[in-house]
Specification:
By secondary structure, the protein is α+β, with helices and mostly antiparallel strands. The chain has 2 domains: 249 residues, no CATH class; 175 residues, Reverse transcriptase/Diguanylate cyclase domain (Alpha-Beta Plaits, 2-Layer Sandwich). It contains 19 helices and 7 strands. The strands form 2 sheets. Strands 2-3-1-6-7 form a 5-stranded mixed beta sheet, sandwiched between helices. A two-stranded antiparallel sheet has the order 4-5. The longest helix is centred in the middle third of the chain and has 29 residues. The radius of gyration is 26 Å and the shape is elongated. 39% of the residues are buried.
Length: 446
């Protein structure tokens, strides 16, 4: 019997999750086994070896379609942004065409293979594989109960498809999507309780992607029931759709900081400039906050850079939860963050800054050192505030004013808020590495 070292087990990324989230992930990961036994009790002919070649063929189509799209590149998953793929095309088809055990087998083999390099932590890959297995089992059970047997096998025997058969297929698709969405949404809510439910549920693009995948999976199952080679016709379509999804993911990833999920410095600048221009045309003010984590170098020196990344991610999460959806939050330096507040003057911006400072003040982040030692990193931030009414509508001046205020906050003892005023041309520009064309672009009134 192989035993894992106790230190190695304690350092599993799973244990860094909140206790309830870790327990939930662990339970969901092992749940397909008892669920499989429950589904197997339906009395269906479950273990025919003749079906083995079918699961191999469908799994092979999944590998070809997903791997064929990897030439575009693969995005890096960041928290708060679900990875969109079309694996469900083949898993849903498997759930309709094959006995229940093969549904679990396909999920266990395909998911860890196809999402490698995207879902970094092992528990994420295991959780996703288990989630898809449970969704497939739910779809399989619903279809069998309504159609009175494997629905795909009944297609050839039904001259018009039959209302009952169509109902079974559509209900199975709904069951698959419902189980998948509930499992993922609950996981997000347990890991990040502050995440709004509408965000955890996913956007319209995610829903459309899921519906597209299930529709293609249904067509693959029907084609397979008529003639298995017909199912191969879906491979080129899935490859093209997956490439389009990956392209969108890569474009979004280029604008997203991998460690925090916030806007990168360059993308934040572009968004901030748009809001400043819009505010100038509308005659309204925009506020800017620059936040710097106090003594962040001590965290890296004491606990290591992985612990520092945990602190960065926690600060980013709290910043997102502490501002409006319309506000733009970005990571603009190693431990420096920026918040653009549309339609906000300096007084209101300072109020927001003080609220964020108080929210973060003394916040404790559990960390694990390089040797496995556990501890806590305390967070405080210094904040500089500026607005366009005082600093002007040139983005470089706005940032210089906020940066000068941030400098005063740090010089005054840290863990405090300072507001900036009109910009002195001798003040330094904190974003000197940003292209001059971006920083010096002035607003032209229409």
């Amino acid at each position: 019997m192989v035993r894992l070292p106790a230190v190695a087990v304690r350092r599993w990324a799973l244990w860094r999750l909140p206790r309830g989230a870790a327990a939930y992930v662990a339970v969901v990961t092992v749940l397909p086994l008892p669920a499989l036994l429950a589904v197997a009790s339906t009395g269906e002919d479950r273990y025919r070896l003749a079906d083995l070649w079918a699961v191999l063929a469908l799994s092979g189509c999944a590998v070809v379609s997903i791997e064929g799209a990897r030439r575009v590149g693969m995005p890096t998953l960041v928290d708060g942004r679900p990875y969109k793929d079309l694996v469900s095309v083949w898993l849903f088809a498997t759930a309709l065409v094959l006995p229940a055990p093969y549904v679990v087998l396909a999920a266990a083999v395909l998911l860890p293979l196809l999402v490698r390099g995207v879902l970094g932590a092992s528990y994420r890959r295991a959780f996703n594989a288990a989630g898809f297995a449970l969704a497939g089992l739910a779809a399989h059970w619903v279809a069998v109960e309504i159609a009175g047997g494997r629905p795909a096998a009944a297609v050839g025997a039904a001259s018009d498809g039959g209302v009952r058969l169509v109902g079974a297929l559509l209900t199975a698709a709904a069951a698959y999507e419902l189980v998948n969405v509930v499992l993922v949404t609950l996981a997000i809510q347990l890991v990040e309780p502050e995440t709004p439910l509408r965000v955890a549920l996913g956007d319209t693009t995610t829903l459309v992607t899921d519906i597209t995948a299930l529709t293609l999976g249904l067509l693959v199952a029907v084609a397979w029931s008529v003639s298995p080679p017909l199912a191969l016709a879906a491979v080129p379509a899935v490859v093209l759709l997956q490439r389009a999804l990956i392209h969108d993911e890569l474009r979004e990833a280029a604008h997203t900081d991998a460690k925090t999920g916030l806007a990168t410095a360059g993308h934040w600048l572009v968004l901030a400039q748009r809001h400043v221009e819009r505010g100038r045309r509308a005659g309204t003010s925009c506020g800017v906050l620059l936040l710097d984590i106090d003594h962040f170098k001590d965290v890296n020196d004491t606990w290591g850079h992985l612990a520092g990344d945990e602190v960065l991610a926690e600060v980013a999460r709290m910043l997102r939860s502490g501002v409006r959806p319309a506000d733009v939050v970005g990571r603009v330096g190693g431990e420096e963050f920026a918040v653009l507040l549309p339609d906000t003057g300096v007084v209101e911006a300072a109020t927001v800054a003080e609220r964020l400072r108080a929210l973060l003040a003394g916040h404790v982040v559990p960390v694990v050192g390089p040797g496995g030692q556990q501890g806590h990193a305390r967070i405080t931030v210094s904040v500089g505030v500026a607005d366009t009414a005082n600093a002007g509508h040139l983005i470089s001046d706005l940032l210089a004013s906020a940066d000068a205020a941030l400098y005063r906050a740090k010089a005054g003892g840290r863990d405090r808020v300072e507001a900036g005023g009109p910009v002195d041309t001798t003040e330094r520009l904190w974003l000197s590495h940003v292209p001059a064309a971006v920083l010096t672009r002035r607003v032209v009134s229409p």
